[in-house]
Amino acid sequence: MNDNGNSKKRRRKGNNNNNSNDQDDGDAKKKDLKGIIASLSLLEEQEKEDEQEHDRASNDDASFIEEKHKTRTKAMLDYYSDFQDCYSEVEESETMKRKRSRSAACAAAAAVAVAADGSDKAKPGTGSAAGHHRRLWVKDRSKAWWDECNQPDFPESEFKKAFRMGRATFDLICQELKSAIEKEDTTLRNAIPVRQRVAVCLWRLATGDPLRLVSKKFGLGISTCHKLVLEVCSAIRTVLMPKYLQWPEDSVVRKIKDEFEAISGIPNVVGSMYTTHIPIIAPKISVAAYFNKRHTERNQKTSYSITVQGVVDPRGVFTDVCIGWPGSMPDDQVLEKSALHQRANNGLLKGVWIVGSSGYPLMDWVLVPYTQQHLTWTQHAFNEKIGEIQNAAKDAFARLKGRWYCLQKRTEVKLQDLPVVLGACCVLHNICELRNEEIEPELRFELVDDEMVPEVALRSQSSMKARDAIAHNLLHHGLAGTSFL
């Protein structure tokens, strides 16, 4: 019994010892965990301090760099300001020198001119010295080609090839424009003669050559040639257009009706209408408006253009033009924007017809072909005869573009100046046609202008009945042709 009791005591004591050891191990682990947490906290605080220190350093660096940049910028601005002041002083000094030089030259030229005038009474041959001094500020350029063309014995055929008209027509234009474009001589230079001014413009329009080539031909500066072309074209529009390109008077209208009826059998036709496109360089504004989709698709090259709508008489002389609307506009929209449409709305075209292509709508005053499929014999016959009237306008535009080659390619003329140039070409075309100036066969131009049927092709029911009546009369009175058969 005693042994059993002792053994129990020993076991209890051993268990107590074990529990005491376990408790000591737990305390030690807690201490280690607290130490690790404390170490992590210290590391985290250290990292925060390092980050704050790095941010402070970065801010200091940024402030230093910004301050340095401001200092350099201020120094550069100060230097540039000083340089500008210095340059302004130099430029002002040079300007004063040039003014003094000009004054001295003018005084010298005037003295020489006075001396030459005084000596001319005794020595007539000394006038050339004054002329030489008067051209002191003109660059010496060769104008041998123009001097040769301007000689009376220059071949007429060569003159016409160069300027697209005979010498007599050229002289007529010079005479009519003289009061508008003639300039007076100055002390320092002689004015460019009227004939040379007109020749520069006509050569440029006829050949479409770049201004640098025109400059070499006529012995003038490039900017001078450009200025001359615009001045002469503006004078043509102001002086000659009211005389050579106007809607005909009543007496002339009756004659036009008779001529068109003799051609086609269609009564009361006063004009043949067509719209063509003139290529241009892509404009800086409203590019999409001038983009020509049909020409681009055909030529596989991006094309931009402006439109020229014209009405002609049986001889191919323009009686009305509308110039400058963007190339993206179809023919019917160009017609609606024209002064011709306004004239018709005011009742001035009542009871007469202007014949157009299928690109125009059928209206009370616009007569166009039948465009539907499966045409009757009567409609075929009408289209055949109306096509003969359309040819008058197409042939006129073919001669216009063939005679003035500048209309066939993109030009250096600015977009805002193009209507003046194109209007001058139409006036010159009329003068040549009225004076029977024939165009060389190799110069004839083949028109390539697509015709799109407008969305609303019929604008008047009464005009449809009138067209049917005309077609019926043509066929049943033996006036229609038979080529449609």
Automatic annotation (TrEMBL):
Keywords annotated in UniProt: Hydrolase, Metal-binding, Nuclease, Nucleus
Region described as Disordered: spans on this chain: 1-64
MF-aspect GO terms: hydrolase activity; metal ion binding; nuclease activity
Protein name: PREDICTED: putative nuclease HARBI1
Family from the record: Belongs to the HARBI1 family.
Lineage top rank: taxon: Eukaryota
Main location: nucleus
